[in-house]
Amino acid sequence: MIRLLLIGVIVQFFSTGCSRHYTKQKEIFSHVSLKENVPQPLSNDSIYRFRQKVEKETGRVIAVTEGALTKDGAESTLGNFVCDALKQAAGKIYPAEKIDVVIINRGGLRMSIAAGEIKVGTIFELMPFENEMVLIKMSGECLLKFGNLVIDQKHPFFGLKVKIKDKQVSMTMNDGTSIDKEKFYTVESSDYLARGSDNFLFLKEGAIANSGLKIRDAIIRYCEKTTEEGKQIKPYTDGRIEISK
Asked: What does the pLDDT average to over 55-62?
């Protein structure tokens, strides 16, 4: 994991540092001996110091969870945890915006989190992607299409109540009110899903606003804030998905 972080930063260094454009004026050729010492942009010493810095940061404890956060079950404690983190982050970035629904994909959560200390590196392993948080304005008619994805994949969400019986789905807002097909709702998700990836095609029908905040960073901030308040992460489910035969 540390190696991936190092590679990512080094690639970013070269991509940003080599962005100048040149126009060909004249061809000049010269002989360069392969035995000559060519200066290296990053010395081994620089890489070692950077590696130490990365290891120190990824090993930093940012929260403690009272129990394991897992992907188990139709409604998962891990999914609820991430949805809560995203909702809190949106409240900071868009204080005047009411977030009606949070939607993430189950496959985007790469690992469960064991009870005990949560480190920065833990969140990098949970969310190794560079996905960013987005807000999407969409109609209730469009939002209702999410129900079919819940049946098949049990994707995590916040703000909705989903009931599944005999593979038929009914969906309301969390307080039990019906979803108005003509009304517009504010949905928080990732830029990855907003492009229609992982069969979330209905998200492409909405108006998208980018936040510039990585989902991983939103989770880290949520953990840090929980600790600052003298609290621990409490894994929970609240019955937002009900399945009956």
From this structure: 84
Helix (H, G, I), strand (E, B) or coil at 197: helix
- Strands 157-158 and 101-103, how do they pair? antiparallel
Q: Which amino acid is at 68?
A: A
Q: Crossing angle, helix 77-93 and helix 215-228, to 10 degrees?
A: 90
- Domains identified in the chain and CATH numbers: 61-244 (3.90.780.10)
Q: How far apart are CA 223 and CA 114, in angstroms?
A: 15
Tokens 């060909």 found at:
24
Closest CA to 6 of 59, 62, 46: 46
Q: Spell out where the chain has E strands.
A: 61-65, 101-103, 116-119, 132-139, 157-158, 160-165, 168-173, 184-190, 207-214, 241-244
One-character DSSP codes across 46-57? HHHHHHHHHHHH
Quote the CA–CA distance of 88 and 179 in Å, as a whole number: 23
pLDDT classification of 237: cutoffs 50, 70, 90 = very high
pLDDT tens column, 95-136: 989 999 999 999 999 999 999 999 999 999 999 999 999 999
CA distance 138 to 152: 22
pTM listed for this prediction: 0.79
pLDDT at site 114: 98
